[in-house]
Amino acid sequence: MRLIIHRNHEEASQWAAFYIADRINAHVKSGGTPFVLGLPTGSSPLSIYRTLVTLHKEGGLSFANVHTFNMDEYVGLSADHPKSYRRFMMENLFSHIDIKRENIHTLDGMASDQEQECRLYEQAITDAGGIELFLGGMGSDGHIAFNEPGSSLSSRTRSKDLTQETRAANARFFDGDISKVPATALTVGVGTVMDAREVLIIVSGRHKARALHAVVEEGINHMWTLSCLQTHPRAIIVCDEDATDELQVRTARYFKDIEQETLRAYRERAKGQV
Length: 274
Ligand code: GLP
What we know:
Elements: E1 2-6, H1 9-29, E2 35-39, H2 46-57, E3 66-70, E4 72-74, H3 85-92, E5 104-105, H4 114-127, E6 133-136, E7 158-161, H5 164-170, E8 184-187, H6 190-194, E9 198-203, H7 209-217, E10 235-240, H8 249-273
Parallel strand pairs: 1-10, 2-3, 2-6, 3-5, 6-9, 9-10
Antiparallel strand pairs: 4-8, 7-8
Helix pairs in contact: 1-2
């Protein structure tokens, strides 16, 4: 796992956005298959989405050959409900870029047969060739998507009851009223995220520091579902300094040193190509 620490949320987001843009551009240049991108909602990815939109508007990034799969959706909210994740994605990303509507995949929170909806979602991911890069955030209890503490680390897409902590954290999107936050969601599983060829997680703020410590420094544990990343062959957590508050000083220093080395190696390679 790489842990990339930036001074603040904006710098971490910029790094992540440029990383995603590079991966899409390199993939598209290599020809052929679409780039399959997994996406989250929440406040963590907003700045990344803004930068991706800017890159697109400036002409440096096209989503014409990108297929997306969102992580989750609230049960009981229709696609056009002002608080649905589908609507969030339309407003913050999809309606500003050149993605084809038929290449956008989101779970249907109104599906009458939720099990079938989840099964078909997994099938659609497989049919698309699997997810190349899954971007995600992390809940303050260390959850990924809506895989709350105690979720199976091999879970697939399914419905999950949300914890009070998660509903309270998301109440800010529902006029601060926890009773308006749906109690259930459809979500990709931990296993679904782990199947992605690469996973990139953005984490910001002191309120995430305890979870980041558990995910990075403690063992793999279903109570902190993002700790699953420890066994992923290509996982990156990009974070701000505040989120590292509960890490041991030497852990943060270790990961910073490694990234300095990586940067030096990139520079050397770049010089060699001049
Ligand atoms: C929700 C979402 C997650 C997101 C988390 C953190 O639980 N299902 O995908 O990572 O919130 O949200 P935020 O980025 O707003 O802190």
